From TrEMBL:
One of its GO terms (molecular function) is ATP binding. Keywords: ATP-binding, Kinase, Nucleotide-binding, Transferase. InterPro entries: Kinase-like_dom_sf, Prot_kinase_dom, Ser/Thr_kinase_AS. Coiled coil: none annotated. This is Protein kinase domain-containing protein. It comes from the Eukaryota.
Length: 407
């Protein structure tokens, strides 16, 4: 284990520089890298917090150094206020197994205001920002959210983070909440909206063999998501553990006016969110036991090997890179058909049974009312089939998968 030598780093929260209690650990004695001894220079960019260590490191080294050196989550120190609607009810962006995600507004904390006493007061609009605030709904959610805060803090340090992961602003201790940028459209909502649009248009022989959002939009979504997964596995060294449409957020690439004019590509940047089931990929050490050992199971997006009676009995149910690949493939099938449940009309028990046979997902989907959207030998099948092999060892690797999606 590395020796601990706590020091303070200046990191940005809410576009204001504050000193954060980030614990920096010196690398193990075997390492010839020098830990940073002074607080970061360019204080507004968290990626500058470990400059000496990270210069010249390849992606795998970078993530290992960050994991070893960043041991406590970034803190969010401004005050937060949950936004309410006209009837004084708190506004929610969404809910999940662990949390409610509220729309919240920030105000600089009294301490920060006191530090800034010599600077001229800024206008209220400049200091108030809107955030998504993920608050625990159960007592046992607290350690899970703390582990998620650490995972998101580490991701913050890695090049490419902004393109693939929901922006994280810190852990807000008074409310035990995670503070993120608000990205109010989940892929699940988008899929339902697209399916609704198709239903309203009525059946069309011209489009019935295409994904609900159109061929080019689906292909572009697939490429972006697969590239994001490749980044998570290979650059960040992290397994997401619960990939499904509800845990992916869509950041618009265009304004509303421009959006209606763009028809051929997918006009959003899909961002991975909800790292509550995330695990480090640590080949040398096996499983990282400091992480909250909570995996989420969301059949039919969960890989079949994690749902088998044998693995459930043995407790050997940790997600793997290959199980992430399966979950993303299932997500892309749902996006193509517009059926968020994948197998609509079946009972929960039937769905679980089908999920245990997940390698047959395309076959099952074809029996459903939108089965025509994933035709045999079509491009959806070509991209999905290699990612859903029953044996996880035979599933496509993300690097190859990115090339296939780009072909
Ligand atoms: N940054 C965000 N901005 C807007 N909505 C969000 C954000 N993060 C999560 N949500 C919404 O809240 C829901 C629950 O959040 P999630 O992180 O998945 O929590 P859980 O771990 O409890 O499943 C998501 O499905 C999504 O709809
Ligand atoms: Mg979730």
């Amino acid at each position: 284990m590395a020796t601990s030598s706590p020091m303070h780093l200046s990191l940005e929260t809410n576009h204001k520089t504050v000193t954060q209690p980030i614990t920096i650990q010196t690398p193990t004695s075997g390492s010839n890298l020098t830990p940073p001894v002074t607080p970061i220079g360019k204080e507004n960019d968290p990626k500058n917090a470990l400059p000496d260590l990270l210069i010249g490191a390849n992606p795998a080294e970078t993530s290992a150094l960050v994991k070893r050196n960043v041991c406590t989550p970034l803190n969010f120190t401004d005050e937060l206020e949950i936004c309410s609607d006209a009837e004084e009810r708190p506004i929610e962006f969404g809910r999940g197994a662990w949390s409610i995600v509220y729309k919240a507004r920030s105000r600089p904390s009294a301490t920060i205001a006191a530090i800034a006493i010599n600077t001229p007061p800024s206008s209220p609009t400049a200091t108030t920002r809107v955030y998504a605030m993920k608050s625990p709904v159960r007592r046992d959610a607290r350690p899970v959210l703390q582990a998620e805060a650490l995972a998101l803090t580490r991701l913050n340090f890695l090049p490419g983070y902004e393109r693939y992961v929901v922006p994280f602003h810190g852990y807000h201790t008074p409310t035990e909440s995670l503070v993120m940028s608000a990205v109010p459209l989940a892929l699940s909502t988008y899929i339902e909206d697209q399916a609704d649009i198709m239903r309203k248009r009525g059946p069309s022989t011209a489009t019935m063999f295409d994904p609900v959002q159109g061929t080019e939009a689906w292909k572009n979504l697939a490429f972006k998501l697969i590239s994001g997964l490749e980044w998570l596995h290979k650059t960040a060294g992290i397994i997401h553990g619960d990939i499904k449409p509800h845990n992916l957020l869509l950041r618009p690439l265009f304004s509303d006016d421009e959006l209606s004019a763009s028809t051929d590509t997918f006009p959003y940047e899909p961002l991975f969110a909800d790292f509550s089931s995330a695990l480090d990929i640590s080949p040398e050490n096996g499983r990282d036991t400091t992480q909250a050992s909570m995996s989420a199971f969301t059949p039919p997006f969960t890989a079949p090997e994690l749902l088998s009676l044998a693995s459930l009995k043995s407790g050997d149910v940790d997600p793997t890179p290959a199980s992430d690949v399966f979950s993303l493939a299932a997500t892309l099938v749902a996006a193509a058909t517009g059926d968020l449940l994948l197998y609509p009309g079946s009972s929960n028990m039937q769905r679980l049974a089908m999920a245990r046979d997940g390698q047959r997902i395309l076959e099952f989907t074809r029996c459903g009312s939108n089965g025509s959207r994933v035709p045999r030998n079509g491009f959806v099948e070509k991209l999905i089939q290699p990612a859903i092999a029953k044996d996880p060892a035979l599933r496509i690797d993300t690097s190859e998968w990115v090339m296939l999606a780009n072909a």
